[in-house]
Amino acid sequence: MTTLDDTTTNADRSVATTRTFPASVGLMKRSVVNITRLPSAFLPSVLMPIFQAIAFSGTFFAITQIPGFPTDRSINWFLPLGVVMGAGFAGIGIGFTTIRDLEGGFYDRLRLTPAPRMSLVTGPLLAALARAALVTTIVFIVGTLFGARLTHGPLGLIPLYVAALGISAIGTGWGLGLAYIFRDMRAAAIMQLTFFLVIFLTEAQTPLFIMQGWLENVARINPFNSVIRLSRLGFVDPPMTWGNTWGGLLTIAVFTALMLLFARRGLARLSDV
Amino acid sequence: MTLTAATPTSRTRPELHQSTVAQTLALSKRSILSLWRQPALVVPSLIFPLFFAALGTSSFSRATTAVPGFPAVDSYLDFALAGSVVQGILFGSTVGATALAVDIENGFFDRLLSSPSTRSGIIVGRMAGGMVYGCFQTVFFIVVLLPFGLSIKGGVAGVLTMAVGGTILALAVGALMSAMAIKTGSSEAVQGAFPLLFIAMFFSSAFFPKETMSGMYKTLAYINPISYLVEGFRDLTINGFSASAVVRAVVIPAILAFLAVGLALWALKSRLGAR
Fold it and tell me: What ipTM was reported for this prediction?
């Protein structure tokens, strides 16, 4: 008869009493290590936002000449969009990884470990946040080389990082929830398409006052418009005020909570299968 | 008994001696049917360009009057049509090349090579589906956008020219990607090369006039053949039918197609030579 108290080694005991946070950190480390072991899977999530920021700012350079445009540097306008897209895809990329793990059977082994269930959500969340921070930093550095400037000093980086980490958390919850429901690559298409739509149906390309027709109406009621606006606070001419900030923070808080709940419920349903 | 092998029946003999055209048509039919039977592969190339056209029209309509250097247009939608057509064809034509790579991966391509069909028939036949689809896409985008205010100054002749240009462009892109498929024998490599086309399109005047760009973007747009091709389509839409527009909309894709088919045949030759 083996009991924890008498014969189990220290290593066994630490596994048996694993708590949510250490287990989450372990899962995060696995994901971060994968960046160096499988760079081909991570590189697109960095290259895509860099390309987007550079290509959009070059192609649509002239829109800054429209009277009233909030910046005279097109890269200042499009860099935060690239960051938000990259961070969001860092989040839903966790959903892709989870689908692969589910299909390959690795997830079953994870569920058999004594790690708390919640760590299967918080671990990937920490991983997504780490990836999003990395993507944001790289895109910002490259964007700076291409002429992006913080119009209100280094403080302007705070809303950019908050928006990036927030959208990444939302993307993680959405990606995990869908992965748990569909358990195959059908979920990947839904994750990408919905995220793409939600972000582009905002001020992604031009400010509201320049838009005409249906998009203006949609962007006005799209809560993610305030997240895009938050990400740009440090890069546009209008001052950084609480009035421009709280909407984005509220959207991030509400949608992060909802999406993580969605993921947790999906995981619970997965355990019932 | 080996009678069948020694004396082929009259039913099989004509098939063995079919002309290049007949062989190409047979392979084309297979390629077209495969696209028809897998709508999930091609539908995104119809939806996304339309979505971007709608998005751009709402986002950039004011730019058509407020940005110096923007050509005179009735609406941004008229301006955007050419970019949407080219974008759709770039998306759609990759599907045929990916299917070719899958044929190589699963061994069907080797069976084709061991058959008495011509090499060019195998390549062009595989791309025929993409060509038909390219023509369809061009007409589809025009028909869908007409009720939303699109006006084609070039009239019916302009639409027909665009359809021909779209068909040839689909051949050019399909052949280019097929060269990649034959060279690598990997559908993943073909998919992986697709972003290069996307980048090439973004650094052109597909979405905004090159006259309004600055610095290296402007230089890239000026040396990018996609700019001139798109502007041919655009001229037919916003200025009317002209020889200059026809040349750019048809001749540039034709030159690209000639080069790309040559590249694909060269890739095939080197693949066969490597064995």
Answer: 0.76
Choose among B39, B32, B41, B242: nearest CA to B135.
Answer: B32
Cβ contacts below 8 Å, chain A against chain B, sum to: 72
- For residue B177 the two structure tokens come to 């990607």
User: Nearest CA to CA, how far is B210 from chain A (Å)?
Assistant: 8
Which of A55, A61, A212 comes nearest B62 by C-beta?
A: A212
Q: What is the pTM of this model?
A: 0.81
A212 contacts B61? CB cut-off 8 A? yes
- Measured between CA atoms, the residue of chain A closest to residue B213 is A61
Average the pLDDT over A146-162 and give the result: 94
